[in-house]
Design brief:
The protein is an alpha/beta fold. The chain contains ten helices and ten strands.
């Protein structure tokens, strides 16, 4: 019924917590835990083998002899997930509610029009050992909003879909989706939202760990901004714009954030090329053609995505 999609690299201090969080789930359906171990240089592989020996009917490990990178490892691991539903949990996070999967699958079974559901989570600072609920959920604590609807239009505001809490329908995500350039979690949710809304379930199920070995968290802000922009650009190129107009705002936001870290001469050149066509496009959509060079109108209409990717 549920495949837990877990990827891990050099998580010897954390992988046991991640696995235990899956094993202690109380469900009336079968669970498989598919772990993609990406050639760790520590004892992560040995720990996974110990658990596999104890729970061979639940744990399905796959080992890379060499480190192939997060996305390649994720795609190969996803290919071995056979469940009707996919739940995600990376090797340095863990689940805390033993009924997490049961609650989410019950919702998905009763509401077939939804593509995924997610929950609240807490953050563990690995240095201070302090656990606190993510502040973005403060508006939900008093019951003011319960079980909120997630759509393509409001996915980013507030951004409450988080990988370690998500359960989605397996058949909705394709290998073609996964192979898009700069694919990451937000790309995943946008793929799912093309097929149906998501639902935020108002309970806390998991802990997201902030640690010094975090692949994303340890990257400089400039690198994060660049990767966010490249993901936004890839999404802009992949999804039909007529059904995803909100991506224009997201794209522009990521573009300006990225340009913030560029040298002045690069910033002006980059914005001049990218933003000009966005600006013209927005005016054209409103029927304002007078400010647009006539030679641009046909190009924008026929090649909007092409020009944005230049």
């Amino acid at each position: 019924m549920v495949s837990v999609w877990m990827i891990t690299y050099n998580h010897e201090k954390y992988i046991a917590d991640a696995i235990e969080g899956v094993l202690f789930q109380k469900t009336n359906f079968k669970i498989e835990l598919v772990i993609g171990e990406d050639g760790s240089s520590d004892r992560t592989k040995e720990i996974i083998r110990e658990y596999h020996n104890k729970y061979p009917n639940i744990i399905k490990p796959r080992y890379n002899n060499l480190n192939i990178g997060m996305m390649s490892n994720a795609i190969k691991t996803f290919g071995e997930c056979q469940g009707k539903y996919i739940a995600l949990c990376e090797g340095d996070d863990y689940w805390t509610d033993p009924y997490k999967l049961q609650k989410q699958v019950d919702f998905m079974e009763a509401n077939e029009n939804y593509s995924y559901c997610c929950t609240k989570f807490s953050i563990l600072n690995d240095n201070t050992k302090i656990i606190s609920e993510d502040e973005r959920f403060s508006i939900y604590s008093d019951g003011y909003v319960n079980d909120a609807e997630i759509t393509k239009e409001n996915l980013f505001d507030p951004y409450i879909s988080h990988t370690l809490t998500v359960v989605y329908r397996n058949h909705l995500l394709t290998n073609q989706d996964l192979k898009q350039p700069y694919f990451k979690d937000i790309f995943l949710y946008m793929c799912l939202l093309q097929k149906g809304n998501g639902k935020f379930l108002n309970f806390n199920s998991s802990v997201y760990r902030l640690n010094d070995n975090s692949i994303w968290g340890t990257k400089p802000k400039s690198v994060q901004a660049k990767q966010n922009f490249l993901t936004a650009e890839s999404m802009f190129n992949y999804f039909p714009l007529e059904n995803n107009k909100h991506l224009v705002k997201f794209y522009i936001g990521c573009l300006f954030e990225y340009c913030h870290y560029l040298p002045v001469h690069e910033k002006h050149a980059y914005l001049g090329k990218k933003y000009t066509f966005l600006y013209y496009y927005s005016k054209l959509k409103r029927g304002v053609k007078s400010i647009i060079p006539s030679t641009c109108i046909l190009k924008i209409q026929n090649n909007m995505k092409y020009y944005l990717m230049k």
